[in-house]
Specification:
The structure holds 2 protein chains of 2 kinds.
Chain A (H helix, E strand, L loop, with lengths): L3 H25 L3 H21 L3 H25 L4 H35 L8 H5 L3 H10 L3 H22 L11 H6 L2 H4 L22
Chain B lengths: L1 H40 L15 H11 L10 H17 L18 H22 L3 H32 L4 H6 L16 H14 L11 H4 L9 H26 L17 H8 L2 H21 L5 H28 L10
The chains are: A mainly alpha, B mainly alpha.
């Protein structure tokens, strides 16, 4: 018999290995487009890990938001860039000590955080969604829109403000901009633009002998 | 061991083939049907040489494409160039996993089916962008940029219109969404009626999302030759073609499922007679109704193509951002009111 737990564990380590490898590739590969694609792969395999943990909503939201939208725009920008790798390489040795110090400080902080959390560790309760008998997604929706409505709405407002600010900061109105109004175009009446003239058919008079210039 | 292996490995593959093989055949026949319909609309004959009424034309084209050489442009990015067609094809086929063809006739009856569909349709754009970038061609890159901007814009309108469906149905499961459209008032119980503007927005966004005429600036022949797949030949081109048509058929199926009651009969609730299993499907609903609806919706794609001139790029962006997204945002509120005040009750009498 195939042990499902063992199978899940194998899957977890598989996805985790892919995630770590992809994350390493993001900072090591030479081609910046390849780096962005590695980041996409890292997001994707992270979503797979979350799916294993039965957090289907978060996993699919990660794919929709990050892989489907954010990374596409990222790729869009990186494709346009013409990065000279030599210049980036030059700074590598110079900034290496600073980088190592920052990395060590971050590592220490994370270890301290995990250590502190481990001291206060308590066993997680049973899955609340399963306890109510709802699907993960339905339970999350219920919780977000009832119990946590205010923080949720505040987050939404902050994001909206962010969008508005981004547009306001980058919008430059040129003075000579020619504007086109679709509603005006639709409302236009053909009779204002062209005039159809009805006239009787006519032909130029036949030249007669008397009208011919005399030699 | 053997039996478990059979249940967990062999049967799913068989089911997947039961969807994928008819889908590929449907794409072939759809291409033939498109050329025939557009021919009639142009007062031409359309393909009529190979097979009776030219019906084997699509297969002849497939054979021709498969026998051609796949050319790699000079200093193209080899890996991504070959990967891009697959990245376009995989989401187009993977999305079919959650499509319910009939009651209990679905490959994966997942609770977050609608979200999964959104995820899969948003992945398709990678194939297009990478094809454009990896080809090392100006035309291909321009086509890819146009396509990416367009797909991202219309994805929002599409997602918001699905939010309306979700609000009325109260579920992300596609089978439940179809059941929510059941009732005793025939086709008036389906969501197209309370969500009429959203239905139209959804379908037009679907046309834009699949880069079809009149939204086909991504491959505007007169401007950028063929857009993102200009450098692709032979079977690599055929894969892009397959993905595009599979996506068109998918959008037709999804519009039928979300707004036209899926496999439900338009006569549901009006006739309750029990004549014979061969006739009962006409009012109890079956996969045949879904196929009819999807066929009619996919016909619209062809009708649009033969009727409308291509949009200009700024017109596409204006339509997506300034018309469709406001309409869907307003209708999300309207749908919320419909649900809250009980004007539309999902699945009455079903």
């Amino acid at each position: 018999m195939i042990d499902t737990n063992l199978l899940q564990l194998i899957c977890f380590y598989g996805f985790a290995a892919v995630t770590v490898a992809a994350a390493l590739a993001v900072i090591t590969v030479k081609n910046s487009v390849h780096a962005v694609l590695s980041l996409v792969l890292a997001f994707f395999s992270t979503a797979c890990i979350w799916l294993l943990a039965e957090a289907e909503f978060l996993a699919i939201a990660l794919i929709v938001v990050y892989v489907g939208a954010v990374m596409v725009l990222f790729l869009f920008v990186v494709m346009m860039l013409d990065i000279k790798m030599e210049q980036v390489r030059e700074g590598f040795i110079r900034y290496l000590p600073v980088g190592i110090i920052v990395a060590l400080v971050m590592l220490g902080e994370m270890l301290a955080l995990i250590g502190v959390r481990a001291m206060h560790a308590h066993v997680l309760g049973a899955d609340p969604a399963a306890a109510v008998g709802l699907s993960n997604t339905a339970w999350l929706g219920g919780a977000l829109y009832t119990q946590y409505l205010l923080p949720f709405e505040i987050a939404a407002v902050i994001l909206t403000v962010g969008v508005v600010v981004a547009v306001a900061l980058t919008l430059r109105q040129r003075g000579d901009k020619r504007h086109e109004s679709a509603s005006e175009q639709v409302r236009v009446n053909p009779r204002d633009r062209i005039r159809v003239v009805k006239m009787a058919p006519s032909r130029p008079d036949e030249p007669t002998a008397s009208q011919e210039p005399l030699q | 061991m053997g039996e478990q292996l059979l249940n967990e490995l062999v049967w799913p593959v068989v089911y997947i083939l039961c969807i994928a093989v008819p889908l590929i055949l449907a794409v072939a026949m759809f291409v033939y049907w498109e050329r025939k319909v557009i021919g009639w609309m142009h007062v031409r004959m359309g393909p009529n040489k190979i097979g009776p009424f030219g019906i084997l034309q699509a297969f002849a084209d497939v054979v021709k494409l498969l026998l051609k050489e796949v050319i790699l442009p000079s200093s193209a990015n080899r890996v991504l160039y070959y990967l891009a067609p697959l990245l376009a094809l995989v989401p187009a086929f993977a999305a079919w996993a959650v499509v319910p063809f009939d009651d209990r006739m679905v490959l994966a009856n997942v609770n977050a089916g609608l979200l999964y569909l959104l995820a899969m349709t948003s992945l398709g754009v990678y194939g297009i962008i990478l094809a454009g970038w990896a080809s090392n061609s100006r035309y291909a890159l321009l086509g890819a940029m146009r396509s990416a901007a367009q797909v991202i814009s219309y994805e929002l309108a599409m997602g918001l219109s699905l939010v309306c469906v979700l609000v009325l149905a109260g579920s992300l499961n596609l089978t439940d969404i179809v059941h929510a459209q059941g009732g005793g008032k025939g086709f008036l119980d389906w969501f197209w009626l309370p969500l009429l503007p959203v239905f139209i927005v959804y379908f037009i966004s679907g046309v834009a999302e699949t880069n079809r005429a009149p939204f086909d600036v991504a491959e505007g022949e007169s401007e950028i030759v063929a857009g993102f797949h200009v450098e692709y030949s032979g079977s690599a081109f055929a894969i892009f073609f397959l993905a595009e048509y599979a996506n068109m058929i998918l959008v037709s199926f999804l519009a039928s499922i979300f707004f036209l009651g899926g496999w439900l009969s338009p006569l549901q609730g009006w006739i309750t007679a029990d004549v014979s299993p061969w006739v009962n499907w006409i009012w109890t609903g079956s996969i045949i109704w879904l196929l009819i609806k999807a066929f009619l919706m996919s016909f619209l794609f062809l009708w649009f193509r033969a009727t409308f001139p291509r949009y200009r790029y700024d017109q596409i962006m204006r339509l997506g951002w300034k018309v469709f997204i406001p309409i869907t945002i307003v209708w999300v509120l309207v749908a919320g009111c419909m649900k809250y005040f009980g004007w539309v009750i999902a699945g009455t009498g079903a």
